Amino acid sequence: MQPRPGRRLSQAHVARLTGVSEGWYRALEAGRRQDFSEAFLLRVARALRLSEAETLTLFLGVCGRRPPEESPRDPRHLPEGVKALLDQQVTYPAYLSDIAWNVVAVNGLMAEWFPWSVRPGANLIRWALLSPEAREQMLDWEESCARTYLAMLRVAANSNPDNAELRALVREVLDADAECRRIWARDSEVVEHRDGHVFPYHGGREIRVISHVLLPIQRTDLRFVFITPLLDGDEAAA
Protein backbone atom coordinates (compact mmCIF):
# COMPACT_ATOMS: atom_id res chain seq x y z
CA MET A 1 0.00 0.00 0.00
CA GLN A 2 1.63 3.23 -1.13
CA PRO A 3 0.62 6.28 0.92
CA ARG A 4 -0.33 9.40 -0.98
CA PRO A 5 1.53 12.67 -0.45
CA GLY A 6 0.27 14.34 2.70
CA ARG A 7 -1.12 11.05 4.04
CA ARG A 8 2.07 9.29 5.08
CA LEU A 9 1.59 7.06 8.10
CA SER A 10 4.07 4.62 9.57
CA GLN A 11 3.11 0.98 9.93
CA ALA A 12 3.28 1.41 13.71
CA HIS A 13 0.87 4.36 13.53
CA VAL A 14 -1.65 2.51 11.36
CA ALA A 15 -1.40 -0.51 13.66
CA ARG A 16 -2.29 1.67 16.64
CA LEU A 17 -5.19 3.26 14.78
CA THR A 18 -6.61 -0.15 13.85
CA GLY A 19 -6.02 -1.82 17.21
CA VAL A 20 -3.55 -4.51 16.11
CA SER A 21 0.14 -5.19 16.53
CA GLU A 22 2.65 -3.70 14.13
CA GLY A 23 3.58 -7.20 13.00
CA TRP A 24 -0.04 -8.02 12.18
CA TYR A 25 -0.45 -4.88 10.09
CA ARG A 26 2.94 -5.44 8.43
CA ALA A 27 1.72 -8.89 7.36
CA LEU A 28 -1.21 -7.21 5.59
CA GLU A 29 1.03 -4.88 3.60
CA ALA A 30 3.38 -7.75 2.74
CA GLY A 31 0.49 -9.96 1.64
CA ARG A 32 1.55 -12.78 3.95
CA ARG A 33 -1.85 -13.54 5.52
CA GLN A 34 -5.29 -14.17 4.07
CA ASP A 35 -7.45 -14.45 7.20
CA PHE A 36 -7.99 -10.78 8.02
CA SER A 37 -11.49 -10.00 9.26
CA GLU A 38 -13.84 -7.61 7.47
CA ALA A 39 -13.91 -5.42 10.60
CA PHE A 40 -10.11 -5.07 10.54
CA LEU A 41 -10.03 -4.23 6.83
CA LEU A 42 -12.72 -1.60 7.34
CA ARG A 43 -10.65 -0.06 10.16
CA VAL A 44 -7.62 0.04 7.85
CA ALA A 45 -9.70 1.73 5.14
CA ARG A 46 -10.90 4.37 7.61
CA ALA A 47 -7.42 4.92 9.08
CA LEU A 48 -5.93 5.47 5.62
CA ARG A 49 -9.00 7.44 4.45
CA LEU A 50 -9.39 5.20 1.44
CA SER A 51 -11.95 6.06 -1.18
CA GLU A 52 -14.78 3.66 -2.02
CA ALA A 53 -12.83 2.34 -5.00
CA GLU A 54 -9.65 1.93 -2.94
CA THR A 55 -11.58 0.09 -0.21
CA LEU A 56 -13.03 -2.23 -2.84
CA THR A 57 -9.51 -2.87 -4.18
CA LEU A 58 -8.25 -3.62 -0.67
CA PHE A 59 -10.99 -6.19 -0.05
CA LEU A 60 -10.68 -7.84 -3.46
CA GLY A 61 -6.90 -8.04 -3.11
CA VAL A 62 -6.90 -9.43 0.42
CA CYS A 63 -9.95 -11.71 0.60
CA GLY A 64 -11.46 -11.78 -2.90
CA ARG A 65 -14.83 -10.30 -1.98
CA ARG A 66 -16.54 -6.94 -1.86
CA PRO A 67 -16.66 -4.96 1.41
CA PRO A 68 -19.91 -5.27 3.36
CA GLU A 69 -22.49 -2.51 3.31
CA GLU A 70 -21.84 -0.49 6.46
CA SER A 71 -25.55 0.38 6.72
CA PRO A 72 -28.52 -1.17 4.88
CA ARG A 73 -29.78 0.85 1.96
CA ASP A 74 -33.45 1.72 1.71
CA PRO A 75 -34.51 0.05 -1.56
CA ARG A 76 -37.22 2.69 -2.06
CA HIS A 77 -34.59 5.42 -2.49
CA LEU A 78 -33.54 4.79 -6.07
CA PRO A 79 -30.85 6.71 -7.96
CA GLU A 80 -32.52 9.06 -10.43
CA GLY A 81 -30.81 7.40 -13.40
CA VAL A 82 -32.03 3.92 -12.45
CA LYS A 83 -35.59 5.10 -11.84
CA ALA A 84 -35.62 7.06 -15.11
CA LEU A 85 -34.36 4.03 -17.04
CA LEU A 86 -37.20 1.94 -15.60
CA ASP A 87 -39.86 4.56 -16.30
CA GLN A 88 -38.63 5.13 -19.85
CA GLN A 89 -38.78 1.44 -20.72
CA VAL A 90 -42.10 1.41 -22.58
CA THR A 91 -41.48 -1.49 -24.97
CA TYR A 92 -41.09 -4.40 -22.56
CA PRO A 93 -42.08 -5.28 -18.98
CA ALA A 94 -39.34 -4.32 -16.51
CA TYR A 95 -38.89 -4.25 -12.75
CA LEU A 96 -36.39 -3.77 -9.94
CA SER A 97 -36.00 -6.32 -7.15
CA ASP A 98 -33.72 -6.55 -4.13
CA ILE A 99 -31.49 -9.39 -2.93
CA ALA A 100 -34.50 -11.28 -1.49
CA TRP A 101 -36.55 -10.73 -4.67
CA ASN A 102 -38.86 -8.15 -3.12
CA VAL A 103 -40.24 -6.05 -5.97
CA VAL A 104 -39.03 -2.47 -5.47
CA ALA A 105 -40.45 -0.78 -8.58
CA VAL A 106 -42.10 -1.73 -11.89
CA ASN A 107 -42.92 -0.08 -15.17
CA GLY A 108 -46.41 0.08 -16.66
CA LEU A 109 -46.08 -3.01 -18.84
CA MET A 110 -44.85 -5.12 -15.92
CA ALA A 111 -47.95 -4.10 -13.97
CA GLU A 112 -50.11 -5.00 -16.98
CA TRP A 113 -48.51 -8.40 -17.69
CA PHE A 114 -48.00 -9.38 -14.05
CA PRO A 115 -50.57 -7.59 -11.84
CA TRP A 116 -49.21 -9.36 -8.74
CA SER A 117 -46.05 -7.21 -9.03
CA VAL A 118 -47.88 -4.08 -7.82
CA ARG A 119 -49.59 -5.73 -4.86
CA PRO A 120 -48.32 -4.79 -1.39
CA GLY A 121 -45.33 -6.91 -0.38
CA ALA A 122 -44.86 -8.37 -3.87
CA ASN A 123 -42.04 -10.93 -3.96
CA LEU A 124 -41.00 -12.77 -7.13
CA ILE A 125 -39.96 -16.05 -5.46
CA ARG A 126 -43.05 -16.21 -3.27
CA TRP A 127 -45.34 -15.56 -6.25
CA ALA A 128 -43.55 -17.93 -8.65
CA LEU A 129 -43.31 -20.87 -6.25
CA LEU A 130 -46.39 -20.56 -4.05
CA SER A 131 -49.06 -18.76 -6.06
CA PRO A 132 -51.69 -20.80 -7.97
CA GLU A 133 -51.73 -17.89 -10.42
CA ALA A 134 -48.09 -18.54 -11.32
CA ARG A 135 -48.78 -22.21 -12.07
CA GLU A 136 -51.45 -21.15 -14.53
CA GLN A 137 -49.49 -18.34 -16.20
CA MET A 138 -46.08 -20.05 -16.31
CA LEU A 139 -46.63 -23.01 -18.61
CA ASP A 140 -44.71 -26.19 -17.72
CA TRP A 141 -44.32 -24.72 -14.22
CA GLU A 142 -41.91 -27.28 -12.76
CA GLU A 143 -39.35 -27.25 -15.57
CA SER A 144 -39.57 -23.65 -16.73
CA CYS A 145 -40.14 -21.98 -13.36
CA ALA A 146 -39.84 -23.97 -10.13
CA ARG A 147 -36.48 -25.66 -10.74
CA THR A 148 -34.86 -22.39 -11.84
CA TYR A 149 -36.24 -20.30 -8.97
CA LEU A 150 -35.33 -22.89 -6.36
CA ALA A 151 -31.80 -23.06 -7.81
CA MET A 152 -31.58 -19.27 -7.54
CA LEU A 153 -32.86 -19.37 -3.97
CA ARG A 154 -30.25 -22.01 -3.08
CA VAL A 155 -27.40 -19.83 -4.36
CA ALA A 156 -28.67 -16.67 -2.67
CA ALA A 157 -29.19 -18.37 0.70
CA ASN A 158 -25.71 -19.94 0.62
CA SER A 159 -24.07 -16.70 -0.54
CA ASN A 160 -25.76 -14.62 2.17
CA PRO A 161 -25.96 -16.91 5.23
CA ASP A 162 -26.51 -13.96 7.60
CA ASN A 163 -29.52 -12.63 5.69
CA ALA A 164 -32.50 -13.46 7.90
CA GLU A 165 -35.01 -12.54 5.19
CA LEU A 166 -33.54 -15.06 2.75
CA ARG A 167 -33.46 -17.78 5.41
CA ALA A 168 -37.09 -17.07 6.23
CA LEU A 169 -38.03 -17.17 2.52
CA VAL A 170 -36.42 -20.62 2.11
CA ARG A 171 -38.30 -21.93 5.15
CA GLU A 172 -41.59 -20.44 3.98
CA VAL A 173 -41.35 -21.97 0.51
CA LEU A 174 -40.31 -25.43 1.71
CA ASP A 175 -42.80 -25.51 4.57
CA ALA A 176 -45.69 -24.41 2.35
CA ASP A 177 -45.35 -26.60 -0.72
CA ALA A 178 -44.70 -30.34 -1.12
CA GLU A 179 -43.65 -30.04 -4.77
CA CYS A 180 -41.02 -27.44 -3.88
CA ARG A 181 -39.73 -29.70 -1.09
CA ARG A 182 -39.48 -32.60 -3.54
CA ILE A 183 -37.58 -30.55 -6.14
CA TRP A 184 -35.31 -29.03 -3.46
CA ALA A 185 -34.42 -32.46 -2.07
CA ARG A 186 -33.95 -34.06 -5.50
CA ASP A 187 -32.03 -31.36 -7.39
CA SER A 188 -28.65 -29.82 -6.62
CA GLU A 189 -28.76 -27.30 -9.48
CA VAL A 190 -27.52 -23.79 -8.73
CA VAL A 191 -28.35 -20.62 -10.71
CA GLU A 192 -27.26 -17.13 -9.73
CA HIS A 193 -29.50 -15.10 -12.04
CA ARG A 194 -32.28 -15.96 -14.47
CA ASP A 195 -30.50 -13.97 -17.19
CA GLY A 196 -31.27 -15.43 -20.61
CA HIS A 197 -33.83 -17.84 -19.18
CA VAL A 198 -36.60 -18.71 -21.64
CA PHE A 199 -40.02 -19.55 -20.29
CA PRO A 200 -43.53 -19.90 -21.76
CA TYR A 201 -46.01 -17.34 -20.47
CA HIS A 202 -49.78 -17.58 -20.88
CA GLY A 203 -51.26 -14.09 -20.44
CA GLY A 204 -54.34 -14.85 -22.57
CA ARG A 205 -52.26 -16.54 -25.27
CA GLU A 206 -49.13 -18.62 -25.12
CA ILE A 207 -45.92 -16.66 -25.77
CA ARG A 208 -42.31 -17.59 -25.13
CA VAL A 209 -40.36 -14.83 -23.42
CA ILE A 210 -36.79 -14.33 -22.24
CA SER A 211 -35.59 -12.47 -19.14
CA HIS A 212 -32.56 -10.19 -19.00
CA VAL A 213 -30.90 -9.22 -15.70
CA LEU A 214 -28.78 -6.10 -15.24
CA LEU A 215 -27.00 -5.04 -12.03
CA PRO A 216 -27.05 -1.22 -11.66
CA ILE A 217 -23.55 -0.07 -10.76
CA GLN A 218 -25.09 2.64 -8.54
CA ARG A 219 -27.07 0.04 -6.59
CA THR A 220 -25.45 -3.39 -6.78
CA ASP A 221 -27.96 -4.63 -4.19
CA LEU A 222 -30.72 -4.39 -6.83
CA ARG A 223 -31.52 -6.33 -9.98
CA PHE A 224 -32.90 -4.58 -13.07
CA VAL A 225 -34.88 -7.16 -15.02
CA PHE A 226 -36.73 -6.77 -18.29
CA ILE A 227 -38.67 -9.37 -20.23
CA THR A 228 -38.78 -9.59 -24.03
CA PRO A 229 -40.66 -11.85 -26.46
CA LEU A 230 -38.50 -14.62 -27.86
CA LEU A 231 -37.75 -13.76 -31.50
CA ASP A 232 -36.84 -16.28 -34.19
CA GLY A 233 -33.11 -15.58 -33.87
CA ASP A 234 -33.30 -15.97 -30.11
CA GLU A 235 -35.17 -19.26 -30.54
CA ALA A 236 -32.38 -20.64 -32.73
CA ALA A 237 -29.73 -19.54 -30.23
CA ALA A 238 -31.65 -21.10 -27.34
Automatic annotation (TrEMBL):
<dbReference type="Pfam" id="PF13560">
    <property type="entry name" value="HTH_31"/>
</dbReference>
<dbReference type="InterPro" id="IPR001387">
    <property type="entry name" value="Cro/C1-type_HTH"/>
</dbReference>
<dbReference type="Pfam" id="PF17765">
    <property type="entry name" value="MLTR_LBD"/>
</dbReference>
<dbReference type="InterPro" id="IPR041413">
    <property type="entry name" value="MLTR_LBD"/>
</dbReference>
<dbReference type="InterPro" id="IPR010982">
    <property type="entry name" value="Lambda_DNA-bd_dom_sf"/>
</dbReference>
<protein>
    <recommendedName>
        <fullName>HTH cro/C1-type domain-containing protein</fullName>
    </recommendedName>
</protein>
<feature type="domain" description="HTH cro/C1-type">
    <location>
        <begin position="7"/>
        <end position="56"/>
    </location>
</feature>
